[in-house]
Design goal:
The protein is an alpha/beta fold and about 140 residues long. About 30% of the residues lie in helices and about 35% in strands. A hairpin with a 2-residue loop joins β5 and β6. It binds zinc ion.
Length: about 140
């Protein structure tokens, strides 16, 4: 099987509600996404998917929704509304804690199927780095 992977980086703030330690505090990361695609066959130019299409579709979604946003648990609306009111920053709510695991799962199972519905390639793996040393991976069966 041949796959191709595009890396997309972004900056965002988050906090993990009820975390036992310092991750419960609002803090930020330089995140990196590695999105891997596979297709039944290569296209007539020899590609799984054009890297530019991944940048255009997934990169744009990330820019609009996560880049320089604060990503919060839906239960954290009081904090989100305080930040948005005070700073005008965009807040992205998830129905779970914004851990690297949940963010990777959300991209793989919710966002990528919608974004790439018209493409022959399918996103089968999202690797989401929260720091250069720590990442979570969502892999489709
Ligand atoms: Zn963190």
């Amino acid at each position: 099987m041949i796959s191709c992977t595009r890396r997309i980086e972004f900056d965002a703030g988050h906090r993990v509600m009820e975390h036992e330690s310092k991750c419960k505090y609002l803090h930020g990361h330089r995140y990196a996404i590695e999105a891997t695609f596979v297709a039944a066959g290569l296209d007539n130019l020899g590609r799984v998917i054009d890297f530019g299409v991944v940048r255009e579709l997934l990169g744009t979604w990330v820019d609009e929704n996560w880049d320089h946003a604060t990503i919060l648990n839906d239960k954290d609306r009081e904090l989100g509304e305080a930040i948005a009111t005070k700073t005008g920053q965009k807040i992205f709510y998830m129905n779970a804690n914004p851990t690297a695991e949940n963010m990777a799962d959300y991209l793989l199972n919710k966002i990528c199927p919608e974004l790439f519905v018209a493409e022959n390639a399918k996103c089968t793996r999202i690797k989401l780095y929260e720091t250069p040393n720590c990442y979570a991976e969502a892999i489709s069966a």
